[in-house]
Amino acid sequence: MRIAIIGGGISGLVSAYNLSPGHNVTIYEKSDEIGGLLTSYHREQYSIEKFYHHFFSRDIMFLNLLEELGLSKDILWLKGSTGTYQNGMIYPLTTPFEILRYPLLSIGDKIRLALFMKQVRNVDSSELDLISTEKYLTERVGKNIYRSFFKPLLNSKFGKNADSISAAWVVSRVAIRSDRGITGERLGYLNNGFSGFISAISEKIRNSGGIIHTKSPVVMVRNEGDFWYVNDEPFDYVISTIAPVLLKKCGINIPDLPYQGAACVTLGLKRSITNGIYWINLYDKAPYGAVIEHTCFAPLEWYGEHIMYLASYYSEEPASDIKDQMISDFCIKFSVKPDEILWSEIAIEPFAGPLYKSGYKNLMKSVLVPGLVLAGMFSEENYPERSIEGSVRAGKRAAMEILDTIREREVRQ
Ligand SMILES: Cc1cc2nc3c(=O)[nH]c(=O)nc-3n(C[C@H](O)[C@H](O)[C@H](O)COP(=O)(O)OP(=O)(O)OC[C@H]3O[C@@H](n4cnc5c(N)ncnc54)[C@H](O)[C@@H]3O)c2cc1C
């Protein structure tokens, strides 16, 4: 059978990996390299992801996939430390002692917050789709914790959409991030980054006869009788891993799902900036929501220089000088001299993830096109938070759906 896959991110690659032995699979990827949000900058001595990434101990299907690809030996379980930047100061918030010392919440609020974080891990997040985070959190932890702790985090992740985000998102987020001990959160990373994983899976696809077209945007998808046409090429089946709004532009009549973009600056630095903390959320106003010092997580010796991400999400077009704005604000806030920056890059992706507003779950179910299989970040496996694991699951489910249909057809004939 001839199968087209739209999008060469992890979801499309996983679909192709499962279908290419036995079928003629073609991936169409619009950019000049595969990997989607998991692509990397290739520096002389190393590769580094354009958007910061790690995985979690509960990412079972991703971990199984790494094993199948012979990459289990490359898995590293590292400690992720966190903190906040508030009123011009860095506050470490990883160990119980640091949390106790944190001056901006009372002891009572800290206890209430700790109890909430523990209880919420067992809540079924999908039942909370229609409740706003504000209502859910103020009822459980009170207005003060909501305003001083959660609201700045929601603002930095969702900007002006923060108030409309569903409680389902916040609850699932707490659950995902609950693998933590007294020295930090346990997070997975790969020896020398994710680019080895992208190379390994694409090599398997090519070795099984799969075709990967880069610089090949899909502009038209249509159905005629038993065939699907993708850019005028005929196929028996099509998997789409792109945002519904993009698929609509290709001629498929589906409702839009809300989404947001991400702009991420990566810096090579002469020195460490965050006092050893991996992830610092900005509570003060800034053109970015977090600073993430990658080399306070992955070993510095892999890179020979300090790597920093400045992370921001947006829902309207970012300013044309967003990179300069982010870097100059960072230099002021963290007392970095311009000559301490060895190099800088910015990655801007308008379709960086769904916006999980209240009501998203029902909206998502309406995005179904008979005969066209949907995977990627906007599919059910990525509700109510998108992740590597969600896109691996979606890619595999899409492939299995097609294999089942092929088998049923064969039985009928
Ligand atoms: C800043 C950031 C940090 C993240 N960190 C983490 C993390 O630490 N852990 C985690 O689990 N997840 C993380 N994620 C989420 C994770 O990156 C995604 O869930 C996952 O990579 C999505 O893969 P995908 O294949 O579904 O989509 P994508 O990677 O978006 O792939 C879709 C592909 O389709 C292509 N495309 C679009 N339109 C067309 C077209 N018309 N024709 C052909 N090709 C097209 C795109 O170029 C892209 O390559 C992060 C995301 C962001 C934005």
In this entry the ligands are:
flavin-adenine dinucleotide
- At CATH level 2, the architecture of the largest domain is 3-Layer(bba) Sandwich
Number of domains: 3
Taking the alpha carbons of the first and last residues, their distance comes to 15 Å
**Low-confidence runs (pLDDT<50, min 5 residues)?**
none
Strand content: 15-25%
Strand order of the largest sheet: 7-6-16-17-18-15-19
Number of helices: 12
CATH class of the largest domain reads: Alpha Beta
CATH topology of the largest domain: FAD/NAD(P)-binding domain
Helicity, in percent? 25-40%
Structural class: alpha/beta
- Count of DSSP strands: 20
> How would the global form be characterised?
globular
- Largest β sheet strand count, sense and barrel closure: 7 strands, mixed
By CATH's scheme, which homologous superfamily of the largest domain applies? FAD/NAD(P)-binding domain
**Average of pLDDT:** 95
Estimated radius of gyration: 22 Å
Please provide a written account of the structure:
This protein is an alpha/beta fold and 413 residues long. It has three domains: 2-53 and 194-256 and 356-412, FAD/NAD(P)-binding domain (3-Layer(bba) Sandwich), CATH 3.50.50.60; 71-94 and 183-191 and 259-354, Protoporphyrinogen oxidase, mitochondrial, domain 2 (Polyamine Oxidase, Chain A, domain 2, Alpha-Beta Complex), CATH 3.90.660.20; 108-177, no CATH class. The protein is 33% helix and 25% strand. It has a seven-stranded mixed β-sheet. Helix 1 runs parallel beside helix 8. The longest helix is centred in the last third of the chain and has 25 residues, at 388-412. It is globular, with a radius of gyration of 22 Å. It starts with a strand and ends with a helix. The mean pLDDT is 95. The structure holds flavin-adenine dinucleotide. Residues 6-12, 28-31, 36-38, 51-55, 217-218, 241-242, 246, 262, 264, 311, 352-353, 376-377, 386-391 line the site of flavin-adenine dinucleotide (FAD).
